[in-house]
Amino acid sequence: MAERLLTFSVFRYNPLTPEIPPRLQEYQLEETMGMSLFIALNRLREEQDPSLMFDFVCRAAICGSCAMLINGRPGLACKTLTQDLPEKITLMPLPVFKLVGDLSVDTGVWFRHLNVRTEAWIHTGKVFNPQIEERMDNPTAQDIYDAERCIECGCCIAGCATANMRADFMGAAFLNRIARFMIDPRDERPRARYFEVVGTDAGVFGCIGLMACDDLCPMEIPLQGQLAFVRRKMAQMALCCKCK
Ligand code: SF4
Ligand code: FES
After folding, report:
1. Residue 236: what pLDDT?
2. Measured from the CA of 153, which atom of ligand 2 is nearest?
3. Which ligand sits nearest to residue 37's alpha carbon?
4. Tens digit of pLDDT for each residue in 130-143?
5. Rounded Cα–Cα distance for residues 20 and 124 (Å)
6. Which of the two ends of the chain, N or C, has the fewest CB atoms closer than 10 A to its terminal CB?
7. Residue to mutate (ligand 1; options 58, 155, 169; most atoms within 8 A of CB)
8. Sign of the torsion angle spanned by Cα atoms 145, 150, 156, 157
9. Gap from CA of 240 to ligand 2 centroid (Å)
10. How would you classify residue 98: left for phi > 0, otherwise alpha for psi between -120 and 50, otherwise beta?
11. Distance of CA 80 from the midpoint of ligand 2 (Å)
């Protein structure tokens, strides 16, 4: 592999020092074999600028904390290799979420709100008995697992045109979470309860179908399929109501 000298243009701004305006700061670094953006940013912080702010926990595409705009596209820094990028790399924080500083954003508040709003737990009147295994068929378990793979990175929200234009838009992660509980036969909520939450312009009707969420999800969750599932169930319920 021919050695390259990479140039990083990194967004710098600390909301705690508003007197210093936002700017792009340039750094240079020699590329090494198999270098990820996680490795590059850590080297920049250790060797050149200890004030650089960014988030990492797992380094293995599990925690979702390292999402950022990589040359304008939301993605995970720990999963992105520099060899797949040009020599000039621009790094910006994810839009939509509250900026903590530089490349660090607070996705936690947004996802906490999601969990509260969707009541993201199994609603059942049954008393839990650890001695009895509650079985379900494999395809249903697989569908729940697919939806559960969300690592709450925020890439789908940051890349969504509607979420960038209106703060109340739920976005793909939200609708994926709703679909997860609608699929689960253990959840006894009436369908209407879900639709009260998502059956609005801030929910399923706000999506304009650009499908960036589906393209950007690092876990390759079929987000457009989940949206279609929720819409289909809503239409079925509306038709049933009309028949009565
Ligand atoms: Fe990230 Fe995908 Fe979850 Fe969206 S659905 S938050 S892109 S893992
Ligand atoms: Fe956990 Fe990248 S550091 S997903």
Report:
1. 84
2. 4
3. 2
4. 898 888 999 999 99
5. 52
6. C
7. 155
8. positive
9. 44
10. beta
11. 11
Q: Any idea where the domains of the chain sit in the sequence?
A: 5-105, 107-243
Residue 43 CA to ligand 2 centre (angstroms):
16
Q: How confident is the model at residue 233 (pLDDT cuts 50, 70, 90)?
A: confident
Q: What are phi and psi of 40, to 5 degrees?
A: -60, -45
- Beta strands 23-30 and 5-12, pairing class: antiparallel
Closest ligand 1 atom number to CA of residue 176: 5
Q: Is the CB of 63 under 6 A from ligand 2?
A: yes
Q: How far is the CA of 188 from the centre of ligand 1 (A)?
A: 26
- DSSP lists the bridge partners of residue 90 as 9
Instruction: Give the pair of three-digit tokens for residue 94.
Output: 């994810």
Predicted confidence (pLDDT) per residue in 10-60, tens digit: 999 999 999 999 999 999 999 999 999 999 999 999 999 999 999 999 999
Give the CATH fold of the 107-243 domain. Answer: Fumarate Reductase Iron-sulfur Protein; Chain B, domain 2 (1.10.1060)
Kindly state the tokens that stand for 185: 């036969």
pLDDT of 193: 87
Is the pLDDT confidence value at 244 over 60?
Answer: no
Q: 62: Cβ below 6 Å to ligand 2?
A: yes
Residue with tokens 């679909």: 179
Tens of pLDDT, residue by residue over 5-20, are 999 999 999 999 999 9
Domain 5-105 = CATH 3.10.20.30 = yes
Give 156 Cα–ligand 1 centroid separation in angstroms.
5
